[in-house]
Automatic annotation (TrEMBL):
Pathway info: Nitrogen metabolism; urea cycle; (N(omega)-L-arginino)succinate from L-aspartate and L-citrulline: step 1/1; Amino-acid biosynthesis; L-arginine biosynthesis; L-arginine from L-ornithine and carbamoyl phosphate: step 2/3
Subcellular location: Cytoplasm, Cytosol
Entry's Gene Ontology molecular function annotations: argininosuccinate synthase activity; ATP binding
Lineage per the UniProt record: Eukaryota, Metazoa, Chordata, Craniata, Vertebrata
Record's protein name: Argininosuccinate synthase
Entry EC number(s): 6.3.4.5
Keyword annotations from UniProtKB, A to Z: Amino-acid biosynthesis, Arginine biosynthesis, ATP-binding, Cytoplasm, Ligase, Nucleotide-binding, Phosphoprotein, Urea cycle
Organism: Buteo japonicus
Catalytic activity annotation: L-citrulline + L-aspartate + ATP = 2-(N(omega)-L-arginino)succinate + AMP + diphosphate + H(+)
GO biological process, one term: L-arginine biosynthetic process
Length: 410
């Protein structure tokens, strides 16, 4: 049938899919993205080759993930449904872009993935693939009746694995599914599908329990240029990080140590159902608060109102898998333009699951201390406020005058 490039994780599902694709007559090239997850990549390579992959690509895309996907989200203050920092949604187009690149390098016609037929990831992977390579063909086993009727549950997958010599996990399976990248880790399914069930002890892996986290905060100074963090300094020990990847990894460590970045939410999937997800986004949470603060300090009020509306739409597009759409590219341009003056340093404390902003400074600040001071009049005439209030009250007076007439008639 030709060559298929499989987005391979090394886990049970994609290992079974690799063997199943070979059964269907495909030559399989396995592609494993190193996007910051804890993984034994060499063991995964050997496993894929042992299962019959004709070639294995292991691509480290962590740096481009931070610079080309996470940084635009930080600039946007991207947040889906007020709480989700989009860790998985940002990773998928980055992973899929490299999938397409390898497919073209190999001269393959097909790509395959192990995303389920109920989730968002199938949409995110495939919309990226079709956008970047319109003629590509996608094999999605979990949407093929022959496959999902043959493997209705994990037991059937385990039986298939044993029959075909696929190594099965020795340690007991956690009663939920996990997906990790540099930005976050998500937990869903299994016992978490009942939304009233509290996350059990031991679920969280990127962050400490805030109750047992250190009793001394870490005070950080984060420097921004054009809305992007360019330097972080720890006021306690003087540690400094400048490169995008090192800076982000360092913030993950600091936030994780203090239990920062946990959320437990019910969200609306693009396919139409609600799902419960638990997320840890340590560095992303620090940067969300820091960027929000420096932006409010340096950006014009009316520009910021428009930008907030753009950020809302941007977050929705990213969540739904439209990173490579013309409208999302347009929004990234607009948001990037809004960030030209977002320059300066935010000082904050990371402590017991929280991020506390302590202060900020910027050469592009729109804050005028003399103008706002209660001690000095400055270049402001208080008497002018009388006319300002009078004009703004006119509409309210007219509205309530009409309401009075309506009430009398009734």
């Amino acid at each position: 049938k030709g060559t298929v490039v499989l987005a391979y994780s090394g886990g049970l599902d994609t290992s079974c899919i690799l063997v199943w694709l070979k059964e269907q007559g495909y030559d399989v090239v396995a592609y494993l993205a190193n996007i910051g997850q804890k993984e034994d990549f060499e063991a995964a390579r050997k496993k894929a080759l042992a299962l019959g992959a004709k070639k294995v690509y292991i691509e480290d895309i962590s740096k481009e993930f931070v610079e080309e996907f996470i940084w635009p989200a930080v600039q946007a203050n991207a947040l889906y449904e007020d709480r989700y920092l989009l860790g998985t949604a940002l990773a998928r187009p980055c992973i899929a872009r490299k999938l397409v690149e390898i497919t073209q390098r190999e001269g393959a016609q097909y790509v395959a993935h192990g995303a389920t037929g109920k989730g968002n990831d199938q949409v995110r992977f495939e919309l990226t693939c079709y956008a970047l390579c319109p003629q590509i063909k996608v094999v999605a086993p979990w949407r093929l009746p022959d496959f999902y009727q043959r493997f209705p549950g994990r037991r059937e997958l385990m039986d298939y694995a044993k029959k075909h010599g696929i190594p099965v996990p020795v340690t007991p399976q956690t009663p939920w599914s996990m997906d990790e990248n540099l930005m976050h880790i998500s937990y869903e399914a299994g016992i978490l599908e009942n939304p009233k069930n509290q996350a059990p002890p031991g679920l969280y892996t990127k962050t400490r329990d805030p109750a047992t986290s250190p009793n001394t905060p870490d005070v950080l100074e984060i420097e921004f240029e054009r809305g992007v963090p360019v330097k972080v300094t720890n006021a306690g020990d003087g540690a400094t990080r400048r490169s995008a990847l090192e800076l982000f990894v360092y913030l993950n460590d600091i936030a994780g140590k203090h239990g920062v970045g946990r959320v437990d939410i019910v969200e609306n999937r693009f396919v139409g159902m609600k799902s419960r997800g638990i997320y840890e986004t340590p560095a992303g949470t620090i940067l969300y608060h820091a960027h929000l603060d420096i932006e409010a300090f340096t950006m014009d009020r009316e520009v910021r109102k428009i930008k907030q509306g753009l950020a809302l739409k941007f977050s929705e597009l990213v969540y739904n898998g439209f990173w490579h759409s013309p409208e999302c590219e347009f929004l990234r341009e607009c948001i990037g333009r809004s960030q030209e003056g977002v320059v300066g340093t935010v000082r904050l404390s990371v402590f017991k699951g929280q991020v506390y902003v302590l202060g900020r400074e910027s050469p592009r600040s729109l804050y005028n201390e003399e103008l706002v001071s209660m001690k000095v009049q400055g270049d402001y005439e208080p008497a002018d406020a009388t006319g300002f209030i009078s004009i703004n009250s006119l509409r309210l007076k007219e509205y309530h005058r009409l309401q009075s007439k309506v009430t009398v008639k009734q």
